[in-house]
Amino acid sequence: MMTEEQYAPGGSHFNAVESIVERVGCTRTRAIAALRVCSNDVERTLRSLSEPWMRPTQPNTRARRQNPPQSPPLGPLDRAHQTRTTTLDSDGGDAPEVRPERARELPPQGGLEVLTDETPTVTDAQRHSLPSLNPRRKDRPFSPREGSSQFFSLRRLLWALQNERLSLADIVEYFSYFQREAVLDAINQSIEGVPSIFYAVATNREDVVRTWIAYGANVNAIDGRYKIPLLAFAIFNSSVLREDSTTIVLLLLAHGASASTVPIRDDRTTQKQSTGAANGSVEKGEEDSPDMDQRWCNAYFRSRLEQALNTTQRYFLSRAQAYKQPSRRSLQAATKYNVTQLFSLPYCIVGQDVAIRILTERLLSHMVVPNPKPLVLLFAGPSGHGKTEVGRRLRSLLSLDTHTIDMTEIKYETDLFGPKPPFVGCEGGSPLNNFLLAKSGKRAIVMLDEFEKSTREVLNSLLILFDEGRYLDRRRRKSIDCSKIIWILASNALDPVITDFYKNNSTNSPIADPCVIEDQLQPRLLGAMKSKFGFPLSGRISTIVPFLPFSPDQQAVIVHQYLLQLARNVRQSISLSNQLVGNLHLRLQDDVTVSTTLASDCYDPDTGARSLESAVKTKVEAPLIREYLAGNEDISEKQPLEEYVAEVQGGRIVIRRVPGDKVSVPVA
Question: Where is the Clp ATPase C-terminal domain (predicted)?
Answer without folding.
Answer: 585-632
